[in-house]
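User: I'm putting together notes for a lab meeting next week and I want to include a structural view of one of the chains we've been expressing. I don't have a solved structure, so I'd like a prediction I can at least talk through. The sequence is below, exactly as it appears in our construct file.
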Amino acid sequence: MIQVVEDVTGGSLLALLDKDPVAAERPMEILAGWLAAMADVRSASFGKVAFVDAGGRSAGTCASAMLDRALAELQEIAGRDKRAADAQERLGETLHALAEPIEPRAAAALIHGELGPDHVLLDRRGGSRAPATPNANGSAAWPSVTSSASCTIRRRLSE
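Assistant: Thanks for the context. Below is the predicted structure for the 159-residue chain, given as structure tokens.
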């Protein structure tokens, strides 16, 4: 495996948004362009890019995959934290109730799993700040609402 590493010294987009929202407008415009371009990449199936590009078709629905992941994470944390263990049954029921009304999506778009403002780093090229893409391992074909929800949750958790 080959990994490309760059020393990005301009801080995070989240820090810039908090410190100087006007200065954050340019990186946000660039990021919006990236997101629009990714949304144009469509797939009939969801999953990691390499899997989908190789013709793979995911079993079940995106919602069922996300529910399975959430339940596995709940089980894992319940094994480490007594409060989570005590609430595990109630939380599991809540996850099932939240997932139940979600309708399957007909198509998936390319999303990057780590584009929350806390993960977008900025470089200082040309005297302005430009976003630098974080690790692309999180890229996948998912309903685009997944990316929007993830960014919203990240922003709220960081406040």
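A couple of points you could mention at the meeting. Helices lie at 13-19, 25-39, 49-53, 62-78, 82-99, 144-158. Residues 29 and 53 are 29 Å apart (CA to CA).

User: Perfect, that's what I needed.
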